[in-house]
From TrEMBL:
Signal peptide: none annotated. InterPro entries: DUF898. This is Uncharacterized membrane protein YjgN, DUF898 family. It comes from endosymbiont of Ridgeia piscesae. It comes from the Bacteria.
Length: 353
């Protein structure tokens, strides 16, 4: 997608208005009640959290709505827990059942993915018009069974292809009202992103190894331990995991920013387009400071980190309507009313992964 084309139309910026203090009160109550109810309240916690983030995400002066109820989510989780308990029981009695259960789970994956995406879309709305997801099992089988089987055989070289196909499936089957989304990001750009990420990972390993060896030598010099044996105070220290965490966040932030831009800059909704301009450097700094804050606060700043991430994602994403947005929304409302979309296919159980 050419930059000049993106700039030819007026753009509408997404906005996130959530505040740390507000969300912290929701988060801490959710956490306490989930613990006290042995996890049962987690369904209500998810609904409260989703509704807060949806209600504080704005586009063209209007907010989004999360329409699912907690009982829908609780049903799905109870079903999942029931299957998990059954799995543990059968594998303890008959260990060979483990392989059969894994095979059955793999076969069920396309069905679960379709149901999960359909539930999420059907229970999301903007200006009283629901999103939707057209379930397609043949495509899901290719993406979520065929490609994962081939991934280890290709030594991971097919992962960019899998990522592109997965993103195209999720967006390509989605719709807003009666208008379909389409995503046609070029495969070569996915491979380029992951190639650069691989080089970045090698650089991180190299620098981490150098810094780690120098740190070890410095500590050895100051300690009375025999050469070649780590000091007692360093054995099992969480500081040893710090370079791994930093390296992971560097690579993850780079991939997330590049792939998000690639996907959204090649996505359209019935001719209307999107523009994403996340910067890998800013996202990496955001991830590192969030991780540091969460560690130092013993987890109490998780809500602060979530608010920061939501705000950055919103402010770096724009919707570029081709023509009058109000006219497009009015047309969607009329078509939904005429076809009955959003009424006949109601998903009352959350089968989210």
């Amino acid at each position: 997608m050419e930059t000049k084309d993106l700039q030819s139309s007026s753009s509408l910026s997404f906005e996130f208005t959530g505040q740390f203090g507000e969300f912290f009160r929701i988060w801490i109550v959710n956490l306490v009640l989930t613990i006290l109810t042995l996890g049962i309240y987690s369904a209500w916690a998810k609904v409260r959290t989703q509704r807060y983030f949806y209600a504080n995400t704005r586009l063209a002066g209007a907010t989004f709505d999360y329409l699912a109820g907690p009982m829908m989510i609780l049903k799905g989780r109870l079903i999942a827990v029931g299957f998990f308990i059954l799995y543990l029981g059968l594998t303890s009695i008959a260990p060979p059942f483990d392989l059969l259960a894994s095979l059955l789970f793999l076969i069920a994956m396309p069905w679960v993915v379709n149901k999960a995406l359909a539930f999420r879309a059907h229970n999301s709305a903007y200006r009283n018009i629901r999103f939707g997801f057209e379930q397609n099992y043949s495509k899901a089988i290719k993406v979520f069974i065929g490609l994962p089987i081939l991934l280890p055989l290709s030594l991971g070289l097919l992962y960019p292809f899998f990522d592109q196909r997965r993103s195209r499936f999720i967006l390509g089957q989605s719709r807003y009202g009666t208008s379909a989304f389409a995503m046609e990001a070029p495969l070569g750009r996915f491979y380029k992103t992951y190639l650069l990420a691989g080089l970045l990972l090698l650089g991180v390993f190299f620098l981490g190894g150098m810094l780690g060896s120098r740190l070890f030598e410095s500590v050895m010099t100051m300690s009375a331990q025999p050469a070649g044996e780590p000091p007692v105070e360093m054995r099992g220290s969480p500081l040893g995991l710090l370079p791994i965490l930093v390296g992971y966040l560097l690579v993850y932030g780079f991939i997330k920013a590049r792939i998000a831009n690639l996907i959204w800059n090649h996505t359209d909704l019935n001719g209307h387009r999107f523009e994403s301009h996340m910067q890998a450097r800013k996202l990496i700094v955001l991830l590192l400071t969030n991780a540091l804050a969460i560690i130092l606060s013993l987890g109490l700043l998780i809500p602060w980190a979530k608010i920061r991430m939501a705000r950055y994602r919103a402010e770096t994403l724009q919707f570029i309507p081709q023509g009058d947005l109000d006219g497009f929304l009015a047309d969607q409302a009329e078509q939904v009313a005429a076809t009955g979309e959003g009424v006949g296919d109601v998903f009352d159980v959350d089968l989210g992964l």
